[in-house]
Here is the input.
Amino acid sequence: MKRDDPDVCIIGSGAGGGMAAYMLTQAGAKVVVLEAGPLWWPEQDSAMFTWNYQTPRRGSGTRLRPFGEFDAGDGGWDIEGEPYTRAPGTQFDWYRGRMLGGRTNHWGRISLRFGPDDFRRRSLDGLGDDWPIGYEDVQPYYDRVDRLIGIFGSVENLPNEPDGIFLPPPEPRCWERLVQATARRLDLTIIPSRLSILTRPHNGRPACHYCGQCNRGCQANANFSSPGVLLRPALETGRLTIIPEAMAREIRVDARGRASGVSYVDKPSGEDREIRARVVVLAASACESARLLLNSKPAGAPHGLANGSGTVGKYLTDTTGADMGAFVPQLMDVPSHNCDGVGGAHLYFPWVKDNKSLDFPRGYHIEIWGGRGMPGAGAMGGVQNYPIGGGYGQTLKDAYRSYYGSVVGFSGRGEQIPNQDCYCEIDPHVVDRWGIPVLRFHWKWSEHEVRQVRHMQETFASLIEAMGGTPLWSAGPSNDWGLATGGRIIHELGTTRMGNDPGTSVVNRFCQTHEIPNLFIADGGPFVSQADKNPTWTILALAMRTSEYISEEMRRGAL
Here is the structure.
């Protein structure tokens, strides 16, 4: 190594990479972050205050911004020059965030802790595997993430929905109060959401001003994204260098079998370059990190780096998902009002049922949507069964005003159990624009997930009926009860899973690869189970824990 080489090279700048950069620079390490996309800072690059009617497509999505043309930066399921393939019969769509901060710029900021049962599911129902760590190992880091970033919520004392260190939650909006009252009549648990959006000034950042445009990136830095909350403070230490437009090709290994750095493509020039470092941290996302390991084949590792167990790419999971929207006449002709609130619902349904009385083994939570947010292209058109008709001029305008805000929806998000039919591998015949071999996906939902989603849809239907609403589309057994295509919920986990046995896992309890002591993974890959909670808060907590371990090992000269 040269004197100016960094101590740590991190691949990826999202939740895990951003947290690793923050923690390691605070501890005194010199860090380089490689990001495959361009720089993007929410305080200067966000279009938070641009109205949809001012944009070329009235807010509709594009290939690289599928959630809206003024969404926070580039990414998507379909990126020119960066293909992936699917095995015959497979349906799987892989989302990549190509920008500084990755997916943390435009996610829903649903920030849920895994519960005690989520770390020991095999002990409870005999399916999947237990984690080698428990909730008690991660709880202190959840607490520190809460204090560092800020999260609103409420103390509920639900056994497997751990409470956090919460800021006050915002009050439910008009349409949410209707959902809340209906849920209570049906004896369904509904509580304030837990979102990483500030409702009070926190750590030098202002409170949310309720513009509702969180997916566009927050110019005020009131919601959580890696660039604004983690990378900016890391840069201020003077010990972080960010290299954008850097597509990692492989992890280099020295004569001792240790990671020595990373080779990457400088995308603007097309040149191959290399960074040397004492420690390498993979945080490129579960599937991208698996791709890097499988494409790194030094002498003695023909099946990929850190893959002596043969489990890199295996145990791939995604959150199950299904949706149902409804027209609710009670919400027609509501007086025009500012539907104040954060960029997401103020309430959600946690899973509190006992699966022993059901025909599927793992649970789900329900997210809700509706209200009078910023209208975009096709805001009320083209949806089956929507009652609004045609017309011209004032008649059409009056109809839109009457019906606007009368749609409410439910989205179930549940746990998939890892199965042998879901994994990714290197396609031997296809490369990307830089000649890097791409991933090929294998995917198949099991009957566990299909039955779970049927229960979701039945619950949605009962809520809609109790509200006096009409479903806008049907979801029945002919299409697996509306179960989303794999990858569409964008919660891929498990490709480099954690375990005590090097023969059946890739990393140990500190996310350190069993075979290479100075190579760590700080994204969703080490997860042993999916849980019915969104994974970002656990990625952040584990990345904090791993970074602390790296710092301690470096101080004592073990790395």
Notes: Residues 155-223+320-414+446-482 form one domain. The two ends are 13 Å apart (CA to CA). The first helix runs from residue 15 to 26.
